[in-house]
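# step 3/5: fold
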Amino acid sequence: MLESIRKRRNSAVILVAFAAIILVFIFWGVGPGGGGGDANAVATVNGESISVRDYMNLYKREVDYYRSVFKEQFTDEMERELNLKQRSVDILVNRILAVKEARKQGMEVSEKEVQDTIKAIPAFNNNGTFDKELYFKVLNSNRVSPAEFEKNIETDLLTAKIREKILRDVSVTDEEVRDRYMKENRKINLDYVSVDGESLKKGIEVSDEEALAYYKQNASRFMVPRSVNAFFAFASFAEFAKNAPVTAEEVSEFYERNKGQFETPAAVKARHILVRPEPGVDSEKARADAKQKIDGLLEKVRSGGDFAAIARQSSQDPGSASQGGDLGWFQQGIMIKAFEEAAFALKKGEVSGVVETEFGFHVIKVEDRKDPGHMPIKEVEPAIRKTLGESKAKNAAKEALAGLDSKIARAGTAEEMKKEAASIKGVRTAVTGFFTEVEPPAELAGKDDLRNTMLTLPPGQGRTVDAEDGVYLVRVLERKEASVPEFKDAAPEVKDILATEKALKAAREKAVQMVERLKNGEDLKAIASSEKLNVGSTGYFSPLDGFMPRTGIFTGDKEGLFELSQSAPNFPEVLVNEGKHYVLRFAGAREAPESGLEFKKEDIRSRVLAEKEEEVLGEWLNGLRQRSEITVNRDLL
C-alpha cells in the first residue's frame, strides 16, 4: 500500500518541479538556489548551489504531507522507506535543470505575466480584487522581499512554459480510454484457501535448547525497560490566575518600562509613476528610451501636471496605475531599497527625481508622512494586563510548589505527600503507578519533558517541570532499572515467538505447495479437502475497490491479479495478510458494461494523460540529469 501511495505522490513530485506552487515560496521561504559552488550547499547543479535552507523547507513540507496522509501511522521507518530527504533534493535539482533548459531554448517571461500571476493569487486579494497593501504585508510578515518573490514567480512561469512545450504532443486516444475503462471496471471473483499460521502453532513444539539459543542471540529483544512509580503535584496557571489581579499602577509601570515594544514606525503614503525598459530589444537602447520617457513625465509633474492623472495615463505598474499610482501607506523594509530610501527622504507633498530600480524608472510623490511614535496606553492595556496576569500566575504557581517541595521531602509516603499538598488551593496530586517510556500514563501524553524527568530522576529527589498549562513538582517513589530477565522467566515468551515463526514458515510452505499442485492441474477444492481446509469466495471486486473482499489484502500493487481468466486461472504467488497465507484461483468475471464508459471517460482520460505526462517528464528530466554535473553533500541530508 505504501508503494502505491508513493507512486501517486511521484506524480505530484514531478509537478512540483515545474508547477507554479507560489504559496510554497511565500510561506516556506523557499527560493531558487543561486551563486556558484558552496561547501555548505546541500547540492550543486552545474555549479549552481542548493542552499540548506531551501532543502530543509521543502523536506519539512514533504514530511508534513505524508504525516497528514498517514496520521499517527507515519513513523521514522516509513519516512526512511519513502526516502523523503533524497526526494526533496531531487525536486530542487529538477527545478534548476528545467529553468536552465528553458533559458537555453530562448524562453522568457514578461513582467506583465509575472504581475498578472501575482494579482490572481487569492492570498493577495481583498474581496476578489488585488490589494497591493495586503501583498506587501503578507510578504513582509514572511520576510520575503517583493523582488525575491517576483523572481520566484518568474521562475515558476518559466518552468511551466518548458513543461508545456515538452508535453504539447502528449495525448490520449479514445481506444486508450476504453481499454483503461474496461480494465478498471472488470470485476473478478476468486476462490481462495487460507492457511493460518496461528492454527498450526498447536502442533509445534519448541525445545528448551532451541529457546535458549534464540534467547542468547536475541537477549535485547526481551529487555524489560526502566520503570518508575512517581508522585506529582500540579499547579494550574488558570487556577492561580484567579488570585492574581493586575493593578492600574502595574500596567502603567510595565508600559513605561517597555515602551520600545509599543513603538509605531515611520511610514509614508506615496504615489509613483513607473516606466519599464521594453523587454526583448537591445537592453541599452531600451534603458535609454525608458529614461527619456520618465524624464519627460517628471517634467510634466514639475510643471504643475496632476500626478495622479499622469500616473493613471502613463505608469506601467498595473497594480497601481489605475489608482493614479497610489501605493497607500508603507513602512521601511517593505519596498526595494533604492525606492524606499528615496520615498522616506521626501517631505509631505514633495516629488522625487528619477529613481532607478531593477523594475525600471520611478518618480515618487509623498502625500503624507507619519513620524515614529508609541501606541497609547489605553490601546495596549488589555494585552499588558494579559501578559502581567499570566506572569503573576506562573510565579505564584512556582512559589507554591517551591514551598511544597521541602514539605514533601520530609514525608515518608505518597499519602503523606498528598496531605501536605492538600492545603494549597489550586494544586492537585496523583501517583502514576509503575510505567515505562513505551507505556506512559495518560497524564503524561504529549509531555515529553515531564515523562523524561520522571524516568531519569533518582528516587527521593524532587524537581519542578514547566508545562504549557502549569507547573509540575515531581518526586520518584520507586525505580526499576532496565534489565534482561533470566531465561527461566523469559522462556514462555521465547517459545511462543519461536512457535509463531515456525508456524508462519510452515503455513507459507504449505501454501506454496498448494500453488504448485494447482499448477499441476489439481482441483482447488480437492487440494483443500486433502489439507482439511475450506474454500472461500471473495465475491466480485475490481481494481477500483483497492482491497480484496474477505481477505483484507491490498490490491493496488498487484495488477496481475486482475488479468486472471478462465484460460489462466491460477495466481502464481502466495499472498499474506495478518498471518494468513492465501492461495487464489479465478472463479469468474463480469466484464465492464459499455454503457458506463460515457460517464467515466473524461475522468479516465485526465488520469491516463497525467500518467503519460509523468512518464514523458520523467524521461526528459533523466536525460537532463545524465548530461549534467550534479553533486550531493550527503552529510547535510
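# step 4/5: annotate
The chain has four domains: 2-172+613-636, 187-222+488-590, 227-244+382-480, 266-371.
# step 5/5: archive (pending)
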